[in-house]
Amino acid sequence: MTERDGTLDGVHRRNLSKVLGLVHLEGPLSRARLTALTALNRSTVASLAGELVDLGLVVERAPDPTNRVGRPSPVIAADPRVLALAVNPEVDAVTVAAVGLDGSVPMRLRLDVDHLVTPEEVAAIVADTLATWRETSLRTSRIVAVGLAVPGLVRASDGMVRLAPHLGWEDAPIRALVEEATGLPATAGNDASLGATAEHLFGAGRGVDDLVYLNGGASGIGGGIVLDGRLVGGAGGYAGEFGQNRPGIADAADRRAEGGVLEDEVSRGRLLEVAGLAGGDEPTLAAALAESPGPEAAGELARQRRILATTLANAVNALNPSLVVLGGFLATVAENDPGALEAEVAQQAMPAATERLAIRVAALGEDRLMIGAAEAAFSALLADPLAHG
């Protein structure tokens, strides 16, 4: 029996993928609900669920008590013991997390670094973390793949990091290095594009077909674009690099980097400086800025907000999204005065393009890049559970 789409085997594999994908994206679902969502008959859904249980990908449990007449339908849920490792190398830290097929994040490690890590160092960190977790906290779990969220241009075809300027990487085969170090299949993608995927599927953009996501991290600003429900990658997978655009700055007094790009002006480093911090994660920065009573922090937040608003207005005019999502330190800039940001965007964008526009901060917080990287790592398993179960 072949695996071509028209064969019975191909249909069976697609149906397994459909059921697993639903419980992965939607959470625990009753067999009755799965029957309705898949348009398959009850016996087929029961058989598919049983097969996924045997493959160790889902668990089946008794339904919650109900007052309804008749026998309640068993509930199918993604097995939380099936995990992907998610990795985000940055200029100040390497973060590794274990993300469950059910969306849980049982383990997370931020390793602060005092130098720019090389691709080889990242691969070694991932391998060491994997070995430790397999012997301790995750010894009963099954880790199926590794996903890497890299702040740079990542070629979609093979995961080659063509350029990560802040890390000093050029043509870095990070995917191959991690696969060799861990023995697991790996994927690599731009961190902001993966963040866009996570927020679209599970966060602030859930259920929204047209959105723009901007991510602010230690390496600068990246972005992701979802149009008509699909992530826009571009010819090589490099779409969404908003941070490298030249910002429009109406007031010359707002400019800090002559001829600089957006991420030179709207900068985490500048916010750390006015907050009096040498470094730290995003919650630490946000808390420090909130506790800064002087005019310097407030002035810098307002300056960055004005420049960010112009960038967002240009994106709204060009792409007409119904939602803009801001993550990382950009969420801190937005939350400082969300009304002002919305007004400044509306003032500069075409009125018709802002009629249905909402601006929100990322709902997944610090987990957004981890969940996005894991989603990429799970993609092969979700597409064909029988081949990877």
UniProtKB/TrEMBL annotation:
<keyword id="KW-0808">Transferase</keyword>
<dbReference type="InterPro" id="IPR000600">
    <property type="entry name" value="ROK"/>
</dbReference>
<comment type="similarity">
    <text>Belongs to the ROK (NagC/XylR) family.</text>
</comment>
<dbReference type="Pfam" id="PF00480">
    <property type="entry name" value="ROK"/>
</dbReference>
<protein>
    <submittedName>
        <fullName>Putative NBD/HSP70 family sugar kinase</fullName>
    </submittedName>
</protein>
<dbReference type="InterPro" id="IPR043129">
    <property type="entry name" value="ATPase_NBD"/>
</dbReference>
<dbReference type="InterPro" id="IPR036390">
    <property type="entry name" value="WH_DNA-bd_sf"/>
</dbReference>
<keyword id="KW-0418">Kinase</keyword>
<dbReference type="InterPro" id="IPR036388">
    <property type="entry name" value="WH-like_DNA-bd_sf"/>
</dbReference>
<dbReference type="GO" id="GO:0016301">
    <property type="term" value="F:kinase activity"/>
</dbReference>
